Amino acid sequence: MIVDKPWGKVATYALNQPSSVRVITVEPGQETSVHYHRMRDETWVVLDPGITIEIGNRVIDAEPGDEFVIPAEEAHRIRCTGSVRGRILEIAYGYTTEDDTQRLEDAYGRRLDPDW
To answer: How far is the C-alpha of 91 from the C-alpha of 112, rounded, in Å?
Structure first.
């Protein structure tokens, strides 16, 4: 399943509660919202150059092969600073549906308040 986002797309390859496997593609110059999940942890593996990762107050210029663990309730964001789209392999554990997302900041005018 592929879902278009204002910053790129998310391709889900496996969604079996309590885990999922996705590839997140971020277009050049775009970024995801700053957000967190209440009930899931994520592991990200950077697949392409030109990716900047924010986790909490850390900002990391990531390299292909770098791996990051994002615990539940930790704010995070992906930016594509390169000239071509960048991809992240995401493995999520816990409650893996999108209604667990709390946006803190969004450049695309999407709703910040969750439906909790």
So the answer is: 24
DSSP, residue by residue, 21-50: EEEEEE-TT-BPPEEEESSEEEEEEE-SSS
Burial of 78 (0-12, 13-18, 19+ CB in 10 A): buried
Q: Three-class SS of residue 78? A: strand
Cα–Cα distance measured from residue 22 to residue 18, given in angstroms and rounded to the nearest whole number: 14
Nearest Cα to Cα of residue 31 among 51, 12, 48: 51
Q: Quick one: DSSP state of residue 82?
A: S
| pTM tops 0.85, yes or no | yes
pLDDT tens profile 64-108: 999 999 999 999 999 999 999 999 999 999 988 888 899 999 999
